[in-house]
Predict the 3D structure of the following.
Amino acid sequence: MDNDLNNKNMIQNKEKDATASKIRESIKGRENIKSIESKKSTESAKSIERIKSTESVNGIERIKSTESVNSIENIKSQKGCRCGDEALWINSVRKRKNELETIINKTEEAISAAPDGHLRVQDRKSYALYYWIKQSGDTIGTLIPKKKRSIAMKLAQKDYDQKLVKMAKKEQKALSKYLLFLEENVPATIYDNLSEKRRVLVAPFMLADEEYIKKWLETPYELMGFEEGAPEYYSEKGVRVRSKSELIIADMLEKYGIPYKYEYPLKLGKKGTVRPDFTCLNVRTRKEYIWEHFGMMGDPEYANKNVMKINAYGENGFEMGNNLIMTFETSQSPINSNIIRTMVKSFLL
């Protein structure tokens, strides 16, 4: 989608052709792409096992349900793994446990810096008397004069802090037990532990990650195809993409075990059906993300066309960081693999 260098209109337009040539030269100069091409060339003598993701159905290429574009072999289900709303809930519990740890540490520091002993308050209706109890067994204490009211404040704060720490530790202990219970009791494992013949009779409340990924990838769709003579770029798992920049993204997704569909059709309101570069799945949350890479933003015509596309995404509920990932580049500012890695870690893991 990002690589429009081979279409007829670009060939006919000399100025755009010149711009495209510069882009290709700029991209070829990147060290990370050279590394990928070098790796590909050294393995060319070997028999490269490619994913045969399509079959002919009435002359139309369709993705095979039994051979997905992204192998799930790298994505292994782990004991204690949760997903979807469960994963979000568990993360919130862990966050609360960490917050309690911070509260306990800071409060205990304040307690250690406070005066020894504690405070006794005698209520005289219209006023109060404050006593400093310094020794255990002392039930009366020493009267604190008004000019040393700060001592009473420190002792009162200390008494409050001690109660706060006690309650926080109690909650922290309860959360630790709860998290341990959740790790040892995962609903998905109930179905996994059933015999194969029993499974066919049961509709599980929640599929294990591996089964969920398999079903997600099985959905068949028509491929866009490639023009004859177009450059061939294949990811490590054999998925063909349209540009070197898309190749970097595909390889990064595969490196981190992120399931994805390349150019999966998406209905986008009045704009009709579009083909996002990558439709990705966050396995932990089971949330889909659209990833669009805009590789020629230095070309005014290309930029204007894709700004309209970006607006269409926004009008149809797709928000950057929520369910939409976007990356950009120009001939002067080529793609940065570190940015791609950050995107993957921030939204897809």
